[in-house]
TrEMBL record:
Keywords: Acyltransferase, Transferase. Residues 1-98 form the N-acetyltransferase domain. This is Acetyltransferase. Its EC number is 2.3.1.-. It is an enzyme of class 2 (transferase). It holds the Pfam family Acetyltransf_1. It comes from Paenibacillus pseudetheri.
């Protein structure tokens, strides 16, 4: 996503793997957080995943990043690694996709 000047302010990196989408990076510039950019990126990723007939999305994040953000949009923790990195947690999330 770009601002009015054409500068990149948010983005997502993902890949389709068999029947799922894997999100490896979701980033929003500090100055643009809490303005709906992350939500819009997740919604677009889910739209693409559904179009590709994915049955779920998998992603990971750290305790010092935004784990609560993902929970708010229906992602559930499926695994946690303690002390990765030291003093933090590494969370793996999954969201099953429905086809209404």
């Amino acid at each position: 996503m770009k601002d009015d000047n054409g500068d990149i302010v948010a983005g997502i990196k993902s890949a389709i793997c068999w029947n799922w989408m894997e999100i490896s990076i979701l980033w929003v510039d500090d100055n643009y957080r809490s303005q709906g950019y992350g939500k819009r990126l997740l919604e677009e990723a889910e739209k693409v995943a559904r179009a590709k007939k994915c049955t779920f999305i998998k992603l990971d994040t750290f305790s010092f990043q935004a784990p609560e953000f993902y929970k708010k949009y229906g992602y559930k923790v499926i695994a946690t690694i303690e002390d990765a990195p030291l003093g933090s947690k590494h969370f793996y999330y999954k969201k099953d996709l429905s086809y209404e």
